[in-house]
């Protein structure tokens, strides 16, 4: 669910530059009985998730990316998920197999910014609370930085790799929130790259959401992160 390949895709861009009337005489017409469909809670959750994630309307001036360009490698996913005790809600988040979740497209601007969102629901509120506890655990930032560093170094063209992960200021939205910024610095094909990746996690009741933004060179604007997080949290609170 971490979408680290979007970061490498952005790095590559930087390197390469770029009814009829009644009639008693008419025969009777048989009318089929109305049918009703009762959706399960899982199906209702998925519908809500699809209403929550970001759309093009939320991001004027951005271009919707082609699907399938921002997935992370299985090795990186496993290492990153280990940093949150393989919490099942985080593992499911953003996966096509998640029966309760939805993922927005990735939206890009100017070849240097990418924004996306993912939403899922816990079977009970305790499950969503447990996610936030795992994300707030003190070892998480260093563990995530190590996973990111290891994955970047798998590419022999990446040198001078340095990754740090720190908490961002609290965004006062939803029932709980926590956010981190991962800054990756490395050199590839003769070009120095700096990537700033923000992960803003929001819980409202059973709902759990990730807002992810990625910007090269300079961090994503804080006011814009707050605007998008507030929009997502508002939808999470809606019935």
The gist of it:
The chain is of the alpha+beta class and 239 residues long. It is 33% helix and 26% strand.
Question: What structural keywords apply?
Answer:
alpha+beta, eight-stranded antiparallel beta sheet, globular, 239 residues, Protein Transport Mog1p, Chain A, 8 strands
Topology:
Layout: H1 4-16, H2 41-52, E1 63-64, H3 74-82, H4 88-92, E2 102-103, E3 107-109, E4 113-121, H5 125-135, H6 140-153, E5 158-167, E6 176-188, E7 191-204, E8 207-216, H7 222-237
Antiparallel strand pairs: 1-3, 2-4, 3-4, 4-8, 5-6, 6-7, 7-8
Helix pairs in contact: 2-7, 3-6
What would you note in describing this structure?
With 239 residues, the protein is of the alpha+beta class. It has a single domain, classed as Protein Transport Mog1p, Chain A (3-Layer(aba) Sandwich), CATH 3.40.1000. The chain is 33% helix and 26% strand. The chain has 7 helices and 8 strands. Strands 1, 2, 3, 4, 5, 6, 7 and 8 form an 8-stranded antiparallel beta sheet that branches. A hairpin with a 2-residue loop joins strand 7 and strand 8. Helix 2 (41-52) runs antiparallel to helix 7 and helix 3 (74-82) packs antiparallel against helix 6 (140-153). Residues 16-30 have low confidence and may be disordered.
Shape: globular
CATH architecture: 3-Layer(aba) Sandwich
pLDDT under 50 segments (min length 5)?
16-30
CATH topology: Protein Transport Mog1p, Chain A
- Give Rg in angstroms: 22 Å
Helix content: 25-40%
CATH class: Alpha Beta
Number of helices: 7
Number of domains: 1
The fraction of residues assigned to DSSP E strands is 25-35%
Q: Report the strand count.
A: 8
Largest beta-sheet details: 8 strands, antiparallel
Average of the residue pLDDT scores? 88
Please trace the helix and strand order, writing H or E for each element.
Answer: HHEHHEEEHHEEEEH
End-to-end Cα distance: 25 Å
Q: Which structural class should the secondary elements be placed in? A: alpha+beta
